[in-house]
Write a structure and sequence with these properties.
- By secondary structure, the chain is mostly helical.
- The protein has one domain.
- It is about 45% helix and about 10% strand.
- A two-stranded antiparallel sheet has the order 1-2.
- Helix 1 crosses helix 5.
């Protein structure tokens, strides 16, 4: 039994190491392949909205370590007469809607993968302020690297409640394998091309705020 456990641990370590190497290698390759698209989107955003063209925000990653996530900017900085930002719906431009619908706003996160802050597959990184609101069980979503896509994203995205989203995230943590990652990536590509279950956003915006362990929204 001890020998079997040791072999399982070794295989798990090898698989996770392969995932890290594969993530970074693929991110580097895709950044090169998608560079014309990245440059085109950057120029269009610069002309349409000016600087900055990339949205940055602190997010918690593996072991709750804080990192900066990168996405193409999709909203203006328009304010009302009192200087307060307008609602997300009012600031979201048609170009931003297209970028989100096609998931092109996520492309800068390839840099996050290359830096080792994120993986291609894992629980989506949420807001830093949510950390203190998690139950110990919910906090286990940070036992792995956050991902550009994940098990929750191919099973409902923002149509899910927070309880359902966390349940799917934890199922992924407990049942992770390289084959599961491949399946999730395949389903993600399929849903993006068919525009199935695609909401305006893929993680935080558009969801009601998570208020804590007893939140049922």
């Amino acid at each position: 039994m001890a020998a079997k456990t040791s072999v399982q641990k070794l295989l798990t370590y090898f698989s996770r190491s392969l995932k890290v190497i594969g993530d970074r290698s693929m991110a580097a390759l895709l950044l090169i392949l998608f560079s014309p698209i990245l440059l085109t989107v950057a120029i269009i955003l610069l002309v349409r909205m000016g600087n900055p063209i990339v949205f940055t925000q602190a997010r918690p990653g593996k072991d709750s370590r804080i990192f900066t996530v990168y996405k193409f900017r999709t909203m203006t900085s328009d304010c009302d007469a009192e200087g307060k930002l307008l609602s997300d719906e009012q600031r979201l431009i048609p170009l931003g809607q297209f970028l989100r619908k096609a998931s092109l706003d996520e492309l800068p996160q390839l840099v996050n993968v290359l830096l080792g802050d994120m993986s291609f597959v894992g629980p989506r990184p949420l807001l830093v302020r949510y950390l203190e609101r998690y139950s110990p069980e919910q906090a286990r979503r940070h036992d792995v690297l956050p991902g550009i896509t994940g098990w929750a994203q191919v099973n409902g995205r923002n149509a899910l409640t927070w309880d359902e989203k966390f349940r799917l995230d934890l199922w992924y943590v407990d049942n992770w394998s390289l084959w599961l990652d491949v399946k999730i990536l395949f389903l993600t590509v399929k849903k993006v091309f068919r525009q199935e279950g695609i909401s305006q956003n893929t993680d935080v915006v558009g969801m009601p705020e998570f208020m804590g362990n007893n939140d049922k929204s």
